[in-house]
Design goal:
Layout lengths: L34 H18 L5 H9 L10 H12 L2 E5 L5 H9 L2 E5 L16 H12 L2 H19 L3 H13 L2 E4 L2 E4 L2 H4 L2 H9 L9 H5 L14 E2 L2 H10 L2 H7 L4
Parallel strand pairs: 1-2, 3-5
Antiparallel strand pairs: 3-4
């Protein structure tokens, strides 16, 4: 889900070749994480949580203690799944790096979420070439315990598999990017962080909420037709009417509706 997709890029059709998601699963090998790497997690966690505070949608904050993510060190996936799976039906699986879109969406469709088995270095806290375990776990996992998000992610996974096979990979990737990764949502009258890419990035969380950038209202059509950046901060951030509203819209979308989004107004 981190392919380039911006206006100046050459078109990059998403591969329609089928891909078994199981082929990308590797052992987490939690024991290979060094004390320094666990300290990187703790530094990131200690910096991120105070800033997010009331700036992020409430299910995210509720998910942290619910899943034991407030314990020190990089979480061990077996222990994390022991809490997450009975609660939500989701299971975390370890991967070595970026998973191709076809396999990624297939994972989501079966309520599996990929977690990178590595973490950024201490001298690169704010720079991420590809999503590491802090992004994957801290950014995404607290929200998987929210029923609306759990259903949304599964629905996007199933639709994503169909979309890629039908040549609509860019549209589904953009919808995912502008909601699950870098979306904002209204809650209690305030604009708050929704997406995992923002939740796990101190710099871009601040930028999304405080910088002078466009924050248009989220619509399926606009999101599906707006390119994103994966190499810098986003040029704009869509604001959903609420977490529940964007989840319901995306959960109800089917392939026919997705194709219509790319058509004329």
């Amino acid at each position: 889900m981190f392919q380039p997709d911006f206006a100046t890029a050459v078109d990059h059709p998403t591969s329609c070749q089928p891909s078994r998601w199981q082929d990308y699963v590797v052992p987490q090998d939690w024991g290979h994480f060094t004390p320094d790497e666990h300290r990187v997690w703790d530094r990131l966690f200690a910096r991120q949580v105070p800033y997010l505070g009331a700036r992020i949608v409430s299910p995210f904050l509720a998910g942290i203690p619910l899943l034991g993510l407030d314990s020190p060190g990089i979480p061990e996936l077996g222990a994390l799944n022991a809490r997450l799976t009975p609660l939500s039906g989701w299971e975390l699986v370890s991967v070595a790096g970026i998973v191709p879109d076809a396999a990624f969406f297939a994972m989501l469709g079966e309520r599996k979420f990929p977690i990178g088995n590595f973490i950024r270095s201490a001298d690169s806290l704010d720079y991420l070439e590809e999503p590491d375990c802090f992004h994957d776990i801290f950014g995404h996992v607290p929200m998987l315990g929210c029923p609306a998000i759990g259903r949304l992610m599964e629905a996007l996974g199933r639709l994503g598999v169909e979309a890629i096979a039908a040549g609509q990979g860019d549209a589904i990737a953009r919808l995912y990017w502008h909601s699950v990764e870098f979306g904002l949502a209204r809650e209690g009258g305030d604009v708050k962080i929704l997406g995992a890419g923002l939740a796990s990035s101190f710099g871009e969380a601040m930028h999304a909420l405080e910088a002078d950038v466009p924050r248009p209202r989220f619509t399926l059509r606009d999101a599906a037709n707006t390119p994103y950046r994966n190499d810098r901060f986003q040029p704009l951030y869509f604001v959903a009417d609420s977490l529940e509203a964007v989840a319901a819209e995306l959960e109800a979308l089917d392939l026919s509706g997705l194709k219509q989004l790319a058509g004329p107004d």
